[in-house]
Amino acid sequence: MPGENLSRDEARERAELLTVDGYEVALDLRSAVGEAAGGESERRTFRSVTTIRFRCATPGAASFADLVAPSVNAVTLNGRELDPAVVFDGTRVALEGLAEENVLVVDAQCAYSRTGEGMHRFVDPEDGEVYLYTQYEPADARRVFANFEQPDLKAPYRFEVTAPEGWTVWSNGVEESREGGVWRFAETAPISTYITCVVAGPYHYVTDTYRRGDLEIPLGAMCRKGLAKHFDADDVFLVTKQGFDFFHDNFDYPYPFGKYDQAFVPEYNLGAMENPGMVTFREEYIYRGKVTRAAYERRANVILHEMAHMWFGDLVTMKWWDDLWLKESFADFMGSFSLAEATRFTNSWVTFANNRKAWAYRADQLPSTHPITADIRDLEDAKLNFDGITYAKGAAVLKQLVAYAGREAFLEGARRYFKRHAYGNTRLDDLLSVLEETSGRDMTAWARSWLQTSGVNVLTPAVTYDAEGRVAELAVEQEGDEPRPHRAAVGLYRSEGGELVRYARAEVDITGARTVVTELAGSERPALVLVNDEDLTYAKVRFDEGSLDTLREHLGDITDPLARALCWSALWNLTRDALLPARDFVALVLRFAGRESDIGVLQMLHAWAQSALTHYAAPAWREEGGRLVAEGALRELRAAEPGSEHQLTWARFFAATASGDEDFALLEGLLDGSAKIDGLDVDQELRWAFLGPLAAHGRADESAINAELARDDTASGKRHQVRCLAARPSEAVKAQAWAQVVESDALSNALVEATIAGFTQPSQRALIAPYAPKYFDAIERVWRERSIQIGMDVVRGLFPSLQDDPSTLEATDAWLAAHEASAPALRRLVLEARDDLARALRAQARDATAG
Length: 851
Known about the structure:
Blueprint: H1 8-17, E1 18-28, E2 45-56, E3 63-66, E4 71-77, E5 80-82, H2 84-87, E6 92-95, E7 101-111, E8 118-123, E9 130-135, E10 157-162, E11 168-171, E12 175-179, E13 182-185, E14 198-201, E15 204-212, E16 215-223, H3 233-251, E17 260-265, E18 272-273, E19 278-282, H4 293-309, E20 317-318, H5 325-342, H6 348-363, H7 379-384, H8 389-405, H9 407-421, E21 425-426, H10 428-439, H11 443-450, E22 458-465, E23 471-479, E24 486-496, E25 499-510, E26 514-516, E27 528-533, E28 540-541, H12 545-554, H13 561-576, H14 582-592, H15 599-616, H16 619-639, H17 645-657, H18 661-672, H19 684-696, H20 702-711, H21 715-727, H22 731-743, H23 749-759, H24 765-768, H25 771-785, H26 788-797, H27 806-818, H28 824-848
Parallel strand pairs: 1-10, 16-17, 17-19, 20-21, 22-28
Antiparallel strand pairs: 1-2, 2-7, 3-6, 4-5, 4-7, 8-9, 9-14, 10-13, 11-14, 12-13, 15-16, 18-19, 22-23, 23-26, 24-25, 24-27
Helix pairs in contact: 3-4, 3-5, 4-5, 5-8, 6-8, 6-13, 8-9, 9-10, 13-15, 14-15, 15-17, 16-17, 17-19, 18-19, 19-20, 19-21, 20-21, 21-23, 22-23, 23-26, 25-26, 26-28, 27-28
């Protein structure tokens, strides 16, 4: 892994030296099918021939091209043949004596991937068909063709692909011809290496067209043949067309990349990737069973997020990964913005407040927190900065910017930004300058406070009352390393007919450590004071004692779904910060979650309750807490409307929290048909959800799990089977799972993820305790020998967080002290896991005081 790194300084020097005029890339993918030379244990390779035309500002200078490949057949520079053994070191092709104008031809054997990086090769267990797709961000295009792998060396591309008979091939450009198995694609506009793309295989493909005036965009959507019967392409196209309408209305810049294909591909590491004209998604967004409205909302959000990238990221791209936020923060914000205004998911800001911002708040309190505009020294730094700060905090800050600068000023700034920098690369100052023009605001000061500092502020109301019980003074107190300017609303709520409703509101600029909200003086005494009502700013919210007492008794009475979601989010932050006992949070979920109307919020509450039980509850209370949660989940399951999405959500939560013989017997009965719950359709996905906890508690053995795979002999079924097998409570099972993930690279990325998920069962703390020291012995070797994606999966997924006692914290500190020279990215992952563990121990200590 270290040999594949590229530093910011190297990229800057190369960008000053080189200008790229174009690429011609020819790939021969016929080796993807049939028997591999040496058998499947050998790494399959494909031929990749790349011609790069580029200029050099200093003739005679030296530079390098990037290529990660098992071997190179030939290298030719300006007609001069170079010795591959001399110029290629496995990751770079050395280029010396460059001319003013240059032509480089690299003929290489590149490797198919099983880790989701580069050219990923997947064999469908259902029918034996092979599917290929590429995934590059931030720097894996060099695993497929030789290039200058950095975002600011944009160029047009022409792709030519030779494919097996019966396949179809797609790329960024429109198809120009296909003859004799050779597919040729039109030249692209100038784009960065990491958003080029090839998808190839016997995919099921559906087409449509988007029309708007004279603009016509061919649409395509594809998936594996085995998923075709589940593929609701009509809904994908509906959201796609709604997104194009929204962005054309607001950006005043027509979609610039011709066609618009969307591929749902197997074993994908990300949610999706914004390759212009050829967007790729994880195929889990094709639903094999009944799912809730929240699942369709998530998919729609991702579709719109990637579409926003066509402008923010693809048309205009950051110079280096320091300014990753220039694309990801904007796409994350625009995803929710367009979802609320252009689709049926009008409550998307509720999801944003409850889900996305929870990710941001967690990331911003880790020792690895960083400003939104980060200091990215190299590619390993870049890979780890696709995080909750770059995405969700950045999006929340942009929402604050819209409140600060005004909606029209913000959108007009975006329009000028696109027109001024089309097909170019930008830095922070380029965006700030257009926003200053359109808003008349000082964007430098705003950026210093919001983009160039880290950490999250805490906003707490301080209320005093006069003799008549009216508000004498309401102030908002701000804590944090650096107080920021917040444009925020403060809402006052009272009880009316058994409902908590807002009766007064003030939108104010909160500055400094204390801001008095003069507009609310004289208001009648509120039952609840909600700072950051409507979620305009990015900050953790606290409550005064009276408001907290109200929430303990009347949280479910809040009628506004966004206000209710904000209260839940604030209570969860109190729990994580060891200010509210975990059992109190669980009690609130058990008391009020059954009244939650927003299904996405309900699913988040279930996840938080499980996390509270697993990590934040005092160990002595876990068993009792688990029993209470399982009882509550079953009670709500039986009470839910038959056939409703709430019933389905409570069924999944009950399965995840089942804790006794009666619970397991019910799950077994639902699987074999001897038990029924009116309206609950136990489809294949729900069957796996029920089988998982049975396997983890020794109620389903290998034969039962394999029998379920026989019912569902698909790629999805295989992932479920692997997870269930690794979940069984057996020393031999855990040893095998550990060896498969840590000692071998035979498993694909998806099966590594499934095995780790099965291995780490909260009910098996004692069983997996012996692997804590093995973890610290192994991670540096894993990081060195495996791809960065698998390294991240192992280091994060197998950290012994379930061994939640001070000795694990001490072991982590000992490893950090002894490995100061380890890769910074590896140390960052361990530091983050350590912080999570320390937080859990503090929360457990707080919860113990409530017992």
